From TrEMBL:
Keywords: ATP-binding, Hydrolase, Nucleotide-binding, Protease
Pfam families from the UniProt entry: AAA, Prot_ATP_ID_OB_C
Protein name: 26S protease regulatory subunit 6A-like protein
Organism: Trifolium medium
Domain ATPase AAA-type core: residue ranges: 93-127
Keyword Protease recorded: yes
Transmembrane segments: none
GO BP, one annotated term: proteolysis
Residue ranges occupied by any Proteasomal ATPase second OB domain in the UniProt entry: 3-35
Presence of the UniProt keyword Transmembrane helix in the record: no
Length: 129
């Protein structure tokens, strides 16, 4: 699962659930929308509906939520404070663990709070053949 703080070259209002998008492999900026008949390998990345989840929807992960907010949300919502202090925020975070432990829910809540685009990404499909 990937959420993007900056949409890129595509107007965010034109993105809708189920759209296929071309993403820069380094910056993860959305470069273009792709036709639905595009190569099935890009089906790994689809624009998900705009997240509406809230941190209050997540129980028992207060410490993890606080770390996520400090690492991702605050640098995105208060960029000027980090620049003023000369702090470079992390480029991303890795959420890992067994299924059903709240990773996707936390990512969706984070995307909702930062008004970021949320992409659902199937990890095994990232491996290039």
């Amino acid at each position: 699962t990937i959420f993007l703080p900056v949409v890129g070259l595509v107007d965010p209002d034109k993105l809708k659930p189920g759209d296929l998008v071309g993403v820069n492999k380094d910056s993860y900026l959305i470069l273009d929308t792709l036709p639905s008949e595009y190569d099935s390998r890009v089906k790994a990345m689809e624009v998900d509906e705009k997240p509406t989840e809230d941190y209050n929807d997540i129980g028992g992960l207060e410490k993890q939520i606080q770390e996520l907010v400090e690492a991702i949300v605050l640098p995105m919502t208060h960029k000027e404070r980090f620049q003023k202090l000369g702090i470079r925020p992390p480029k991303g975070v890795l959420l890992y663990g067994p299924p059903g432990t709240g990773k996707t829910l936390m990512a969706r809540a984070c995307a909702a709070q930062t008004n970021a685009t949320f992409l659902k990404l199937a990890g095994p499909q990232l491996v290039q053949v």
